[in-house]
Amino acid sequence: MARTDRVSRVIAAPPAAVYGALLDRESVEAWLPPEGMRGRVERWDPRPGGGFRMVLTYLDPAGSPGKTADATDVVDIGFADLVPPERVVQRAVFESDDPSYAGTMTMTWQLAAAGDGTEVTVTATDVPPGIDKEAHETGIASSLAHLASYVETAA
Question: Hey, where are the domains in the chain?
Answer without folding.
Answer: 4-34+79-154
